[in-house]
Design a protein that fits this description.
three-stranded antiparallel sheet; 2 domains; about 40% helix; alpha+beta; about 350 residues; single chain; seven-stranded antiparallel sheet
């Protein structure tokens, strides 16, 4: 695998959810009337930095709300959690309480992270309240369709609530566990290659190591690994083709080096083809939903003309395929990627 360094210099704008996208979300039961929205949580009067157990700044803050607002917010957040997890069945939150609300200024979506705890056994969970961004919603939908993972979220107006994706942050895993003696490095390298291929085809950008997590599942004779994206803000926005290839981010250098050590060109190609076959199968099995998403997104203004032209020209050179030069939207570029995958698999 090649190495390199990619930088994103400008913050991506938040794109509003169009009427057509809302109709799509309503049909697939992603639309909801939430009791508490982003606009409610952002009305705090002060905040203080949140540090980890070692006193290091986490880049999250703990906001403070007026005492009279706290009960309303907490009750609303519990109902929102029930809607996210159990179609609004409030029995699942009878014994739960909101322990903490955290706020992050870092990144595009400026999310709130909610910690909800079961008072009967102290088991806790997290969920997120974010600004509803069309780019992120398209990314979540493509993750649902093409990846082996399920995503769970709801949208109401300018608010989005999203399920927590459990796993070890990719940067922490690289520092402390990547070379663990109990782990098969070839399995980890294989997963990174497949993750890289999926991001490249679906145009999921900015997959630096802190924007994905590693999930580890003990098997009867070994450990299985899965990389999962947790940040979908950079879904087909940037014009630089390398933004959609995790291998080119310096933060992912440990994974790239592991792949270069453990895999040959032949095995890299094999794992890329495995991921392409999986994407082809998903495109065919979910073709109606994919077509509906395509028809909505192709009308949406979710990037700039300059970025679209830069990306199509870059991919035309990368793949030696001038059909990319005819694309006039990010959706058409993704569509051509998928068509090319299908051609390659059935060839």
């Amino acid at each position: 695998m090649e190495q390199g360094d990619v930088r994103i210099l400008k913050k991506k704008p938040i794109y509003p959810v169009s009427a057509e996208l809302r109709k799509y979300l309503r049909f697939y039961q992603r639309d909801a009337r939430l009791p508490v929205g982003y606009h409610d949580l952002v009305n705090f009067y002060e905040s203080f930095p949140l540090t980890d157990k070692n006193g290091k700044d986490t880049l999250w803050e703990s906001p403070m709300y007026p005492p009279l607002e706290v009960e309303r917010l907490h009750n609303g957040l519990k109902k929102a959690y029930a809607m996210l997890k159990a179609s609004g069945n409030l029995r699942i939150v009878e014994h739960k309480y909101i322990e903490r609300i955290d706020y992050c200024k870092f990144g595009n979506s400026n999310p709130f992270r909610i910690k909800i705890v079961n008072r009967l056994n102290d088991i806790y969970d997290y969920f997120y309240v974010k600004k509803a961004d069309a780019s992120r919603i398209y990314g979540l939908e493509l993750e649902e369709i093409f990846s082996p993972n399920q995503v769970n979220y709801l949208v109401d107006g300018d608010s989005l609530i999203e399920e927590h994706i459990a796993g070890i942050p990719g940067d922490e895993f690289a520092k402390s566990r990547l070379r663990h003696t109990d782990y098969n490095p070839i399995r980890i390298a294989k997963e990174f290659v497949k993750f890289n291929e999926r991001c490249k085809i679906t145009l999921l950008g900015d997959m630096r190591s802190y924007n994905f997590v590693m999930q580890i599942t003990p098997d009867f004779d070994d450990f299985q690994f899965r990389l999962r994206a947790i940040d979908f803000d950079q879904q087909f926005y940037e014009g630089n083709a390398r933004v959609y290839m995790p291998q080119f981010f310096k933060e992912n250098k440990p994974y790239v080096e592991l792949a270069m050590e453990c895999l040959t060109d032949k095995t890299v190609l094999q794992y890329q083809q495995e991921e392409q076959s999986s994407i082809m199968y998903q495109a065919r099995s979910d073709k109606h939903r994919l077509k509906e998403l395509r028809d909505v997104s192709i009308k949406d203004n979710i990037s700039t003309t300059d970025n679209i032209h830069q990306l199509r020209d870059g991919l035309a050179a990368y793949y030696a395929d001038q059909n990319y030069s005819k694309c006039e939207s990010m959706t058409e570029i993704v569509e051509l990627n998928i068509k090319n995958v299908i051609r390659q698999v059935i060839a």
